[in-house]
Amino acid sequence: MNTDIGAALRAYRIGRGIRQAALAQSLGVAQSQVSRWESGREQPRAENLEAVRTLIWGEAGDPLAALRHFVSTSEQSLLLIDKDHRIIAKSRALAGDPSPLQQFGWVLDPAENPGFEPLYARYRAILADPCGIIGLEFELPFMLGGSPWLARVRKTIYRVAGVSVCLAELSFQPRPAGLSHTPRCVEHQLAAAPFADPEPRSDRIARLPMRKTRAYFGTGPAGVGSRMR
After folding, report:
1. pTM score
2. Label partner for 25 (CA 20 to 30 A): which of 68, 73, 158, 224?
3. Start and end of every HTH cro/C1-type domain (predicted)?
4. What are phi and psi of 62, to 5 degrees?
Protein backbone atom coordinates (compact mmCIF):
# COMPACT_ATOMS: atom_id res chain seq x y z
CA MET A 1 0.00 0.00 0.00
CA ASN A 2 2.95 2.35 0.64
CA THR A 3 3.80 2.37 -3.08
CA ASP A 4 0.42 3.87 -3.96
CA ILE A 5 -0.18 6.04 -0.93
CA GLY A 6 1.18 9.19 -2.58
CA ALA A 7 -1.21 8.80 -5.51
CA ALA A 8 -4.07 8.02 -3.11
CA LEU A 9 -3.27 11.12 -1.07
CA ARG A 10 -3.26 13.30 -4.18
CA ALA A 11 -6.57 11.82 -5.40
CA TYR A 12 -8.11 12.38 -1.97
CA ARG A 13 -6.95 16.00 -1.85
CA ILE A 14 -7.97 16.94 -5.40
CA GLY A 15 -11.28 15.11 -5.13
CA ARG A 16 -12.24 17.25 -2.15
CA GLY A 17 -10.83 20.51 -3.44
CA ILE A 18 -8.31 20.78 -0.59
CA ARG A 19 -5.23 22.93 -1.09
CA GLN A 20 -1.89 21.21 -0.58
CA ALA A 21 -0.94 23.72 2.14
CA ALA A 22 -4.15 23.03 4.09
CA LEU A 23 -3.62 19.28 3.86
CA ALA A 24 -0.03 19.64 5.03
CA GLN A 25 -1.20 21.71 7.97
CA SER A 26 -3.71 19.06 9.02
CA LEU A 27 -0.96 16.41 8.92
CA GLY A 28 1.57 18.58 10.76
CA VAL A 29 4.14 18.62 7.95
CA ALA A 30 5.48 21.12 5.41
CA GLN A 31 3.73 21.63 2.07
CA SER A 32 6.92 20.55 0.29
CA GLN A 33 6.72 17.22 2.14
CA VAL A 34 3.20 16.56 0.87
CA SER A 35 4.39 17.46 -2.64
CA ARG A 36 7.16 14.87 -2.42
CA TRP A 37 4.74 12.20 -1.18
CA GLU A 38 2.22 12.91 -3.93
CA SER A 39 4.86 12.84 -6.66
CA GLY A 40 6.29 9.56 -5.37
CA ARG A 41 9.72 11.04 -4.70
CA GLU A 42 9.42 10.05 -1.05
CA GLN A 43 7.26 7.75 1.06
CA PRO A 44 5.72 8.85 4.38
CA ARG A 45 7.80 7.87 7.38
CA ALA A 46 6.37 5.57 10.00
CA GLU A 47 5.31 8.47 12.24
CA ASN A 48 3.31 10.02 9.36
CA LEU A 49 2.03 6.92 7.63
CA GLU A 50 -0.82 6.12 10.03
CA ALA A 51 -2.06 9.72 9.97
CA VAL A 52 -2.10 9.70 6.16
CA ARG A 53 -3.91 6.36 6.03
CA THR A 54 -6.51 7.53 8.57
CA LEU A 55 -7.07 10.74 6.62
CA ILE A 56 -7.66 8.88 3.35
CA TRP A 57 -9.44 5.71 4.41
CA GLY A 58 -10.68 6.49 7.91
CA GLU A 59 -10.62 4.27 10.96
CA ALA A 60 -12.34 0.92 11.04
CA GLY A 61 -15.97 1.33 12.06
CA ASP A 62 -15.88 5.13 11.75
CA PRO A 63 -16.82 6.25 8.22
CA LEU A 64 -16.58 9.93 9.23
CA ALA A 65 -13.05 9.64 10.62
CA ALA A 66 -11.36 11.20 7.59
CA LEU A 67 -13.65 14.24 7.47
CA ARG A 68 -13.53 14.62 11.25
CA HIS A 69 -9.73 14.51 11.23
CA PHE A 70 -9.46 17.08 8.45
CA VAL A 71 -11.83 19.51 10.19
CA SER A 72 -10.37 19.15 13.69
CA THR A 73 -6.81 19.81 12.48
CA SER A 74 -7.63 22.72 10.15
CA GLU A 75 -6.78 26.36 10.86
CA GLN A 76 -9.73 27.48 8.71
CA SER A 77 -13.11 28.26 10.28
CA LEU A 78 -14.75 24.89 9.58
CA LEU A 79 -17.53 22.85 11.14
CA LEU A 80 -18.69 19.32 10.37
CA ILE A 81 -22.39 19.18 11.23
CA ASP A 82 -25.27 16.74 10.93
CA LYS A 83 -28.79 17.23 9.59
CA ASP A 84 -29.95 18.70 12.90
CA HIS A 85 -27.10 21.24 12.93
CA ARG A 86 -25.32 19.39 15.73
CA ILE A 87 -21.56 19.79 15.65
CA ILE A 88 -19.61 16.61 14.84
CA ALA A 89 -16.21 18.32 14.66
CA LYS A 90 -14.84 21.86 14.66
CA SER A 91 -11.54 23.27 13.51
CA ARG A 92 -8.79 24.73 15.64
CA ALA A 93 -9.87 28.22 14.57
CA LEU A 94 -13.28 27.63 16.21
CA ALA A 95 -12.13 25.62 19.21
CA GLY A 96 -10.40 28.39 21.16
CA ASP A 97 -11.67 30.18 24.24
CA PRO A 98 -13.03 32.66 23.41
CA SER A 99 -13.92 31.57 19.88
CA PRO A 100 -16.02 33.05 17.06
CA LEU A 101 -18.71 30.48 17.88
CA GLN A 102 -19.03 31.81 21.41
CA GLN A 103 -19.53 35.32 20.08
CA PHE A 104 -21.55 34.64 16.94
CA GLY A 105 -23.01 31.15 17.38
CA TRP A 106 -26.45 32.53 18.24
CA VAL A 107 -26.73 33.94 14.70
CA LEU A 108 -26.87 30.38 13.31
CA ASP A 109 -29.28 29.08 15.96
CA PRO A 110 -32.92 29.28 14.78
CA ALA A 111 -34.12 29.16 18.39
CA GLU A 112 -32.23 32.37 19.17
CA ASN A 113 -32.31 34.05 15.77
CA PRO A 114 -35.67 33.71 13.95
CA GLY A 115 -34.10 35.24 10.84
CA PHE A 116 -32.10 32.04 10.36
CA GLU A 117 -35.16 29.75 10.46
CA PRO A 118 -35.99 29.78 6.69
CA LEU A 119 -32.39 28.95 5.76
CA TYR A 120 -32.21 26.27 8.45
CA ALA A 121 -35.44 24.68 7.22
CA ARG A 122 -34.12 24.60 3.66
CA TYR A 123 -30.84 23.05 4.83
CA ARG A 124 -32.66 20.24 6.64
CA ALA A 125 -34.90 19.61 3.64
CA ILE A 126 -31.89 19.30 1.32
CA LEU A 127 -30.09 16.87 3.62
CA ALA A 128 -33.23 14.74 3.84
CA ASP A 129 -33.65 14.71 0.03
CA PRO A 130 -30.73 16.37 -1.82
CA CYS A 131 -32.14 15.91 -5.36
CA GLY A 132 -28.68 16.56 -6.78
CA ILE A 133 -27.94 19.63 -4.65
CA ILE A 134 -24.46 19.38 -3.15
CA GLY A 135 -23.81 22.87 -1.85
CA LEU A 136 -25.35 25.93 -0.23
CA GLU A 137 -24.02 29.43 0.22
CA PHE A 138 -25.84 32.03 2.22
CA GLU A 139 -25.43 35.52 3.59
CA LEU A 140 -27.21 36.40 6.81
CA PRO A 141 -27.24 40.05 7.97
CA PHE A 142 -27.52 40.68 11.71
CA MET A 143 -26.96 43.40 14.29
CA LEU A 144 -24.30 43.22 16.97
CA GLY A 145 -23.93 45.94 19.59
CA GLY A 146 -25.92 48.32 17.42
CA SER A 147 -23.68 47.78 14.37
CA PRO A 148 -24.56 45.89 11.16
CA TRP A 149 -22.73 42.59 10.64
CA LEU A 150 -22.82 39.80 8.08
CA ALA A 151 -22.50 36.03 8.45
CA ARG A 152 -21.32 34.17 5.35
CA VAL A 153 -21.63 30.38 5.33
CA ARG A 154 -20.60 27.96 2.61
CA LYS A 155 -21.87 24.41 3.05
CA THR A 156 -20.83 21.32 1.11
CA ILE A 157 -22.98 18.23 1.52
CA TYR A 158 -21.42 14.77 1.75
CA ARG A 159 -23.09 11.39 1.95
CA VAL A 160 -20.95 8.93 3.90
CA ALA A 161 -22.10 5.37 4.61
CA GLY A 162 -25.71 6.39 4.04
CA VAL A 163 -25.54 9.43 6.33
CA SER A 164 -25.71 13.01 5.03
CA VAL A 165 -23.38 15.47 6.72
CA CYS A 166 -22.27 18.99 5.93
CA LEU A 167 -18.88 20.69 5.88
CA ALA A 168 -19.46 24.38 6.66
CA GLU A 169 -16.99 27.24 6.24
CA LEU A 170 -17.93 30.28 8.35
CA SER A 171 -17.03 33.94 8.37
CA PHE A 172 -18.42 36.86 10.39
CA GLN A 173 -17.57 40.43 9.49
CA PRO A 174 -18.93 44.00 9.62
CA ARG A 175 -21.54 44.41 6.90
CA PRO A 176 -20.32 46.47 3.93
CA ALA A 177 -22.22 49.66 3.25
CA GLY A 178 -24.98 49.30 0.68
CA LEU A 179 -25.35 45.53 1.09
CA SER A 180 -28.91 44.22 1.29
CA HIS A 181 -30.46 43.72 4.73
CA THR A 182 -32.19 40.58 3.44
CA PRO A 183 -30.85 37.02 3.91
CA ARG A 184 -29.67 35.47 0.65
CA CYS A 185 -29.17 31.83 -0.31
CA VAL A 186 -27.67 30.18 -3.41
CA GLU A 187 -27.88 26.45 -4.09
CA HIS A 188 -25.41 24.46 -6.19
CA GLN A 189 -26.34 21.34 -8.10
CA LEU A 190 -24.48 18.74 -10.14
CA ALA A 191 -24.28 19.82 -13.76
CA ALA A 192 -23.84 16.21 -14.88
CA ALA A 193 -26.31 13.35 -14.68
CA PRO A 194 -26.40 11.64 -11.27
CA PHE A 195 -24.48 8.43 -10.71
CA ALA A 196 -26.26 5.12 -11.00
CA ASP A 197 -25.02 3.91 -7.63
CA PRO A 198 -27.33 5.02 -4.79
CA GLU A 199 -24.55 6.43 -2.61
CA PRO A 200 -21.91 8.06 -4.83
CA ARG A 201 -18.61 8.69 -3.08
CA SER A 202 -18.01 12.28 -2.04
CA ASP A 203 -14.63 12.36 -3.79
CA ARG A 204 -16.32 11.52 -7.10
CA ILE A 205 -18.99 14.14 -6.54
CA ALA A 206 -16.46 16.87 -5.83
CA ARG A 207 -14.82 16.45 -9.23
CA LEU A 208 -18.02 17.06 -11.16
CA PRO A 209 -18.90 20.52 -12.50
CA MET A 210 -21.49 22.45 -10.54
CA ARG A 211 -23.98 25.09 -11.54
CA LYS A 212 -26.13 27.49 -9.59
CA THR A 213 -29.70 26.26 -9.61
CA ARG A 214 -31.51 28.69 -7.38
CA ALA A 215 -30.94 31.98 -5.67
CA TYR A 216 -33.62 33.20 -3.33
CA PHE A 217 -34.01 35.79 -0.66
CA GLY A 218 -35.67 35.97 2.72
CA THR A 219 -38.43 38.35 3.68
CA GLY A 220 -36.64 40.66 6.05
CA PRO A 221 -33.57 41.31 8.18
CA ALA A 222 -32.15 38.59 10.35
CA GLY A 223 -31.61 38.78 14.10
CA VAL A 224 -31.40 42.21 15.65
CA GLY A 225 -30.01 41.35 19.07
CA SER A 226 -26.50 41.83 20.40
CA ARG A 227 -26.39 38.70 22.50
CA MET A 228 -23.10 36.83 22.85
CA ARG A 229 -22.51 33.38 24.20
Report:
1. 0.61
2. 158
3. 9-52
4. -135, 85
